[in-house]
Write a structure and sequence with these properties.
The protein has 408 residues and is of the alpha/beta class. It contains 13 helices and 19 strands. It has three domains: 223 residues, Vaccinia Virus protein VP39 (Rossmann fold); 35 residues, no CATH class; 130 residues, Trna Endonuclease, Chain: A, domain 1 (3-Layer(aba) Sandwich), CATH 3.40.1350.10.
Amino acid sequence: MMLERNRLICGDNLTELATMEAESIDLIYVDPPFFSNRNYEIIWGDEAEIRSFEDRWEGGINVYVDWMKQRVMELYRVLKPTGSFYLHCDWHAGHYLKVMCDEVFGQRNFQNEIIWSYRTGGASKKRFGRKHDTIFFYTKSDSYTFNTQLEKSYMMHKYGFKKSNFKEDEQGQYSMVISKDWWEIPAVGSATKERWGYPTQKPERLLEKIIMASSNKSDIVLDAFCGCGTTLAVAHRLSRKWIGIDISPSAIALIKNRLANLGIGESDIDIIGMPKSVEDLKRFKHYEFQYWVVNELHGTPSSKKTGDMGIDGFSLFNHYPIQVKQQERVGRNVIDNFETALRRYYKVPRKVIHGYVVAFSYTKGAYEEVARAKGEGMKIELITVGDILDKKVKIRQIVSPNEQNNLL
């Protein structure tokens, strides 16, 4: 498979994988939904995103494992004979997934059970703290890429060793040894600079270790549950080619912003399955549409599920409020209500109050109300969805949602 341009796909990975060429991928990493029977709470917290990340499996573990097996079989099919496969899971279903992967890949092709240890998360007085995930590492044959990774091994004391290849840092004396299957890497916390507000985001260091070990420059890396795009961002930085698949348009919109921060524009990659017309967007669920709009404007969604005062997000450069309406012919009453929301938001008196409304179209009355409000020092810009699709809306600056929060 010749991958001339990196590929970002919005769609069901089972369907998308079926269209891909057999034995074409060098490295696969997947971090699928865990069998946790709970909802992830997300920083932007809207209903569609909660639905997108709902991790519930009616019918029990057998339904979940069968759902996963269908996808793992397709992943096995597209993996090169020299390729490697990493499956990220936790205690909920890890042992079931291990048995399933043994069936698909063969027990002899199992290489490692990697333990990723971290310190974040809750703890219980009824059991030991659950502070690790599991990553199963399989290959397709005995001949596969593996670049030995080294790590620091610290000495209990400085003396009594004959070897002279020891070094020292602020933690003490150490030597470099072959990396073990137990990795202590900090999770992505609320204050982590690389944080994008995604509920299951994994640290870049974790993906660096996997990608560097099991691929070489120009190899093709696939993430079929690419979420907020950590695998893709790291693969790009390490000069690998990549393909990312996710079923959520919101996730793809977020990844586009993240890649733009790396200097990767939409013209540099193939984006498949995202809306290309107004009619496509009319079929979106309401909150998916809302999140798509805010991300296309490179803004930050409101973190409030309720009580947001009619504010769905904020512009990135200046944090002006954005209201999104999935409607045609938005009228004067909507603009009037938005004016009230802006006055509540701007608690400190300002010379000019500024905000944006996005919809499919507006009535004459809406434009008249905007003109009237301007005379009272309130600047409201009316943006159409067509303007966004046609790239007529000027984008000033791009930073991550976490960095935006630090600006406030």
